[in-house]
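Following up on my earlier thread - several people asked me to post the actual chain instead of describing it. Fair enough. Here it is, all 201 residues.
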Amino acid sequence: MNRERAVADVSGLPTVVFGPRNLVWWGTTGFAVIEGFSLGLCAVTYVYLRKNYSVWPPEGTKMPSLLLPTINMAIMLASLPLAMWTKKRAERLELGASRIGLILSAIVGLVVFGLRIAEFTSLNTQWNSNAYSSIIWTILGFHGTLILIDVYDTIGITLISFLRMESKWFPEIADNATYWMFTVLVWFPLYLLVYFGPRWL
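Reply from S.P.:
Thanks for posting it. Predicted structure:
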């Protein structure tokens, strides 16, 4: 007995899609939601701990320095147009421009990550000195892992774009740029909390 099977002609469907039609977009978005929630918990913890101290930072703890963290924050904000430009080039399937955007993004990411490591000295306290010290080290360190992940991903996609580029990688480039924008924008309120919180709260 021959069984009939329903078939559909999908030859007319696009081979490259962006945004919610792409599975990688959902993975990137899900990861951003999880990481954003985790950083939100860190911020809530900071505020909760502040309510338990009459003096903030606790007595004997220096205020965090502003110069290096502010320079790094400025670089991160200045990198947003580059990320948006790279995303647009990828969505237009422009390989040469996408490669340029990836290379520049990787360089910016490495600089920002290097400055993040140096930022720990700007906290002017050790992670185990008190609860205040622990939470600001946790916030910096946790967000630093997001920077590292993005740098690793950017360098990887850059190498792929030169070694074995296919059209399916363009959505990856676009999502990589989107994730960097998330990494920068989620840090801005945390930057204010860590470095100006002791001065304002």
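DSSP finds six helices and no strands in the chain. That should answer part of your original question.
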